[in-house]
Structures are given as structure tokens and as C-alpha cells.
């Protein structure tokens, strides 16, 4: 049994994938299940943390002993993360956040009209929540963790993203043809802003979650 090294700490974890509505029945979304974020929430609770799990469109059992906040869109996720981050020791952004959302929302269902071409969907940028919480640092010494999926030059691209986002740790997953086999397995490299590089071998999402919390605990001092 692991010692409760997150006791007295408040950690915020985002999970799942945002949905950006076009009208009351349609949205732009992604395939994120939220499993990695839920594993992070469960392991943090097991290590004694107070956990706020901000879940975007997940269909997973509620983890025990965790404050669960449900959101739909990136804008809602941003509000919830900024609010919870105000007194957090660590923020882990495991959610897949839509980079863009439809510029307009139709309050009634969009209808097809006979003999008429469809209207193009115009998109606008969503706020970058990870970059924002990293720039703000609501609390001194707050540790901020991001996730990134890269297809090539994984480490170089990961390093560049870590610098661009301004977070302390970036969990980089290699995705692509060579890695699709056995995709239920998780393999990652955790890059640190201090130049550190921690490879995490294939294994359950809980194992990766525990490595992330080990690195967070190191940085919390
Ligand atoms: O830029 P990219 O989407 O590759 O970065 C992924 C990381 O940034 C994830 O941790 C994700 O939660 C976060 N992110 C965010 N806000 C966005 C897009 C991504 O916080 N608009």
C-alpha cells in the first residue's frame, strides 16, 4: 500500500472530450473516453488528495471520493477548470479539448432545403485552457500537467509544446501506424520543464497515472 503522499492537497483533473454544438441536436466532438483522466482521479484519491474531476461528456462510473463536475463544451470546461484551479496544488489537463467551435449556434435544428447547397460551417478558435492556467498560476508552486499526442518527432514536438504551453510536465503519447497495434496499452514519455524525461512502459492507465502523481509530488516539495 502506497503512502498517502497527496494528503492535504487539492488536485484538479480534466477528462473526456468536449462537444461543440451546431444546433440543439448536433455537435463537433472527438473520441476521447475519459479513461486516463478517471484513472488519474482515482489514483490521486487513493493517495489522499481532495480531487475535483471535471468530466466532459464521459460515460464512465463515478469514481468514489471525488468531486465530479460535468461540462459539455470547451468554454464550460475552461470556466470549471479556472474555478477549481483557484485553490489547487496541481492541475492535470487530460481532457481532449476541441481547438475550434462553430462560430454560430442555431437555436433551432438546422434543416436541409430542397435544391439548396449546404451552408459551410464556420469555426472559431477555442481558448487554450492549459496555456491559460499555466500563465496564471492561481497559487504559488502550483504544478500543471498537460497531455499531447504526437505522430512523429515525438520528443522534439513534445518539448516545443511543453515550452509553448508553459506547463511543468507534458505526458506525450506516440500515436500512429506503428503504435496502433495493442492500442489499449498505454505507453508515454513524461517530459519536464526542467529538462527531465521519464519513459513509462506499456501498462494500465493507473500505472501512468501513478508516475504522473510521483512527478507532481516531487515538484510540490
Ligand atoms: O495543443 P494540443 O491540443 O496538442 O495540447 C493538448 C493539451 O492541451 C492537453 O493537455 C489539452 O487538455 C490541452 N488543451 C487545452 N485547451 C485547448 C486545447 C488543448 O487545455 N483549447
TrEMBL record:
Co-factor note (free text): Binds 1 FMN per subunit.
UniProt catalytic activity: N-[(R)-4-phosphopantothenoyl]-L-cysteine + H(+) = (R)-4'-phosphopantetheine + CO2; (R)-4'-phosphopantothenate + L-cysteine + CTP = N-[(R)-4-phosphopantothenoyl]-L-cysteine + CMP + diphosphate + H(+)
Residue ranges of the region described as Phosphopantothenate--cysteine ligase: 11-221
Protein name (database record): Coenzyme A biosynthesis bifunctional protein CoaBC
Swiss-Prot/TrEMBL keywords: Decarboxylase, Flavoprotein, FMN, Ligase, Lyase, Magnesium, Metal-binding, Multifunctional enzyme
Cofactor(s) the protein requires to work: Mg(2+); FMN
Biological process (GO), any one: coenzyme A biosynthetic process
Residues involved in CTP binding: 99, 109, 127-130, 147, 161, 165
GO CC list: phosphopantothenoylcysteine decarboxylase complex
Functional summary from the UniProt entry: Catalyzes two sequential steps in the biosynthesis of coenzyme A. In the first step cysteine is conjugated to 4'-phosphopantothenate to form 4-phosphopantothenoylcysteine. In the second step the latter compound is decarboxylated to form 4'-phosphopantotheine. Catalyzes two steps in the biosynthesis of coenzyme A. In the first step cysteine is conjugated to 4'-phosphopantothenate to form 4-phosphopantothenoylcysteine, in the latter compound is decarboxylated to form 4'-phosphopantotheine.
Gene this chain is encoded by: coaBC
Keyword Ligase: yes
Species the sequence originates in: Streptomyces malaysiense
Pathway membership: Cofactor biosynthesis; coenzyme A biosynthesis; CoA from (R)-pantothenate: step 3/5; Cofactor biosynthesis; coenzyme A biosynthesis; CoA from (R)-pantothenate: step 2/5
Amino acid at each position: 500500500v502506497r503512502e498517502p503522499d497527496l494528503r492535504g492537497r487539492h488536485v484538479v483533473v480534466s477528462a473526456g472530450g468536449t462537444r461543440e454544438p451546431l444546433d440543439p441536436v448536433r455537435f463537433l466532438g472527438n473520441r476521447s473516453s475519459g479513461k486516463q483522466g478517471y484513472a488519474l482521479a482515482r489514483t490521486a484519491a487513493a493517495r489522499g488528495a481532495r480531487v475535483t474531476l471535471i468530466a466532459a461528456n464521459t460515460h464512465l462510473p463515478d469514481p468514489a471520493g471525488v468531486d465530479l463536475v460535468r461540462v459539455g463544451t470547451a468554454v464550460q470546461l475552461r470556466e470549471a477548470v479556472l474555478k477549481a484551479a483557484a485553490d489547487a496544488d496541481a492541475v492535470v489537463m487530460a481532457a481532449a479539448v476541441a481547438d475550434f467551435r462553430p462560430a454560430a449556434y442555431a437555436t433551432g435544428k438546422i434543416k436541409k432545403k430542397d435544391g439548396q447547397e449546404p451552408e459551410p460551417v464556420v469555426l472559431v478558435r477555442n481558448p487554450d485552457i492549459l496555456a491559460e492556467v499555466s500563465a496564471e498560476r492561481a497559487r504559488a508552486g502550483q504544478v500543471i500537467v498537460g497531455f499531447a499526442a504526437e505522430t512523429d518527432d515525438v520528443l522534439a514536438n513534445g518539448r516545443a509544446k511543453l515550452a509553448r504551453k508553459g506547463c511543468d510536465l507534458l505526458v506525450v503519447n506516440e500515436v500512429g501506424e506503428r503504435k496502433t497495434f495493442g492500442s489499449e496499452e498505454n505507453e508515454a514519455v513524461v517530459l519536464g520543464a526542467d529538462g527531465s524525461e521519464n519513459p513509462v512502459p506499456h501498462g494500465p492507465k493507473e500505472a501512468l497515472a501513478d508516475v504522473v502523481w510521483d512527478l507532481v509530488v516531487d515538484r510540490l516539495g
